[in-house]
């Protein structure tokens, strides 16, 4: 009966978001309250559980997500992302232009949130389409595959970062494993799959072909690459340093401090403020305006993550979470496959990769403790599942459809299949690394 109750509550969450068109944060709160009542949590404790769940979830994430949004904003506004794109185009040339777009999307996708990266890269894709007279979907999908994989697999993006905190995983190791898995997922879901889509007729709307900055206003190549990728460099460096510093307590403490995600993002943002802002003549007031806008852009994402924390806490308080974990543990599946599957089901039902990942985390968390599964790989398994088969209930589906001016059939054939491929390849990559450990 307990399992039926929790499935009904998850179903209520899905219906509130999809059929009722209710904001996911409000939907999480309503579903959490209903779940608490149905599963016997004392009424006087439900409000406290919601507060604790939201506080625990956001306590370690608000800094990372907010600073990540600010970094992405200045990378975009300064023209650093455009500079990276133009350099990659020059390196790969016309024959391998789609590979250049893949690399560009991946590099830009690390510091930028998905929607920001999507809108930023669309003018570049369409300008290349017009210049080389190549099919828009064939050129555009590989770059967007890179953005999507970075969004689902790699911290400091909201869902992976939240999963890292939820499972007490190491963010640096998660990033390293994520990069190893992301590369084959992007290659197969992007350039390889895109070769089957050359015949899709796409005539991008002129209104979406935005103007780009003139070359003389762009930052230098070195500045653009180093500043955009600084979080990756810092996380990778401190992860390696931690392994080397096992016997040196002072060095270990220093690497732990510098490697903390919040410190990494703060250092990266301070550097970007100077290299992409002040040193290029942008006033501090204007830079702070960028940062204020960036936080507004992610405020709802932060609330949604908090709402997921509220549901997680209700599951913990009721004891259902442990019961589910015990049942899932006895299933004849690898726990990593279970995590992927649960996330995939919720993704297909709800549409949001972030909601799918965070909801799954609340269900799967006790199983991670009980089974001793590698927490970094569980983060990536759930992240992979959260990308599975984007369709009409996903805003990303409509972004792609409208920007590329496609029919729903062609959008399903291209975008939805690409998301499914990267999800499945991600799962296979997780299982391969797990088998090698």
Considering the chains and any ligands shown, give keywords for the structure.
transport, 437 residues, gluconate transmembrane transporter activity, mainly alpha, membrane, transmembrane helix, cell membrane
What does the model show?
The two termini are 38 Å apart. 78% of the residues lie in helices and 0% in strands. Helix 4 (62-77) packs parallel to helix 13, helix 6 runs antiparallel to helix 7 (114-132) and helix 11 (221-244) packs across helix 12 (249-259). By secondary structure, the protein is an all-alpha fold. The protein has helices at residues 2-18, 24-38, 43-59, 62-77, 80-92, 97-109, 114-132, 136-153, 158-166, 171-194, 221-244, 249-259, 261-277, 284-318, 320-329, 335-350, 353-371, 375-385, 395-404, 408-436. It has 20 helices and no strands. The longest helix is centred in the C-terminal third of the chain and has 35 residues, at 284-318. The chain has one domain. The chain is globular, with a radius of gyration of 21 Å.
In short:
The chain has 437 residues and is mainly α.
- The protein's oligomeric status is single chain
**Cα-based radius of gyration, to the nearest Å:** 21 Å
Per the principal axes of the C-alpha atoms, what is the gross shape?
A: globular
Low-confidence stretches: none
Produce the secondary structure layout.
Blueprint (H helix, E strand, L loop, with lengths): L1 H17 L5 H15 L4 H17 L2 H16 L2 H13 L4 H13 L4 H19 L3 H18 L4 H9 L4 H24 L26 H24 L4 H11 L1 H17 L6 H35 L1 H10 L5 H16 L2 H19 L3 H11 L9 H10 L3 H29 L1
Helix pairs in contact: 1-2, 2-3, 2-14, 3-14, 4-13, 4-14, 5-6, 5-11, 6-7, 6-8, 7-8, 8-10, 8-20, 9-17, 9-18, 10-11, 10-18, 10-20, 11-12, 11-13, 14-17, 15-17, 16-17, 16-18, 17-18, 18-20
């Amino acid at each position: 009966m307990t399992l039926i109750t929790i499935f009904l509550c998850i179903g209520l969450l899905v219906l509130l978001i999809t059929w009722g068109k209710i904001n996911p944060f409000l939907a999480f709160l309503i579903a959490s309250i209903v779940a608490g009542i149905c599963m016997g949590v004392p009424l006087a404790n439900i409000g406290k559980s919601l507060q604790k769940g939201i506080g625990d979830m956001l306590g370690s994430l608000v800094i990372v997500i907010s600073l990540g949004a600010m970094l992405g904003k200045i990378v975009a506004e300064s023209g650093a992302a455009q500079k990276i794109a133009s350099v990659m185009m020059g390196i790969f040339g016309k024959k391998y232009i789609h590979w250049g777009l893949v690399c560009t999307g991946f590099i830009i996708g690390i510091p930028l949130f998905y929607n920001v990266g999507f809108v930023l890269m669309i003018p570049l894709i369409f300008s290349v389409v017009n210049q080389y007279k190549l099919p828009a979907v064939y050129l555009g999908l590989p770059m967007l595959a890179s953005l999507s994989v970075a969004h689902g697999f790699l911290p400091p993006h909201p869902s992976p970062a939240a999963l890292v905190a939820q499972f007490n995983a190491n963010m640096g190791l998660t990033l390293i494993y994520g990069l190893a898995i992301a590369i084959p997922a992007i290659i197969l879901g992007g350039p390889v799959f895109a070769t089957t889509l050359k015949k899709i007729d796409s005539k991008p709307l002129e209104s979406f072909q935005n103007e780009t900055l003139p070359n003389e206003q762009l930052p230098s190549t070195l500045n653009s690459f180093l500043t955009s990728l600084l979080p990756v460099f810092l996380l990778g460096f401190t992860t390696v340093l931690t392994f080397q510093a096992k016997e040196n307590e002072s060095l270990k403490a220093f690497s732990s401090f510098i490697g903390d995600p919040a410190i990494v993002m703060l250092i990266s943002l301070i550097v970007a403020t100077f290299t992409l802002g002040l040193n290029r003549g942008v006033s501090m007031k204007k830079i702070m305006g960028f940062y204020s806008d960036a936080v507004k852009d992610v405020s709802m994402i932060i609330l949604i993550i908090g709402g997921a924390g509220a549901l997680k806490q209700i599951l913990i308080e009721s004891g259902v979470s442990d019961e589910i974990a015990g049942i899932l543990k006895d299933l004849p599946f690898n726990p990593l496959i279970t995590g992927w599957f649960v996330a995939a089901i919720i993704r297909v039902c709800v549409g949001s990769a972030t909601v799918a990942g965070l909801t799954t985390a609340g269900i799967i968390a006790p199983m991670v403790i009980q089974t001793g599964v590698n927490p970094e790989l569980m983060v990536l398994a759930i992240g992979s599942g959260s990308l599975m088969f984007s369709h009409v209930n996903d805003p990303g589906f409509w972004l792609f459809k409208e920007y590329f001016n496609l029919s729903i059939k062609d959008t399903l054939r291209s975008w939805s299949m690409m998301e499914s491929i990267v999800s499945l390849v991600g799962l296979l990559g997780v299982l391969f690394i797990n088998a090698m450990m």
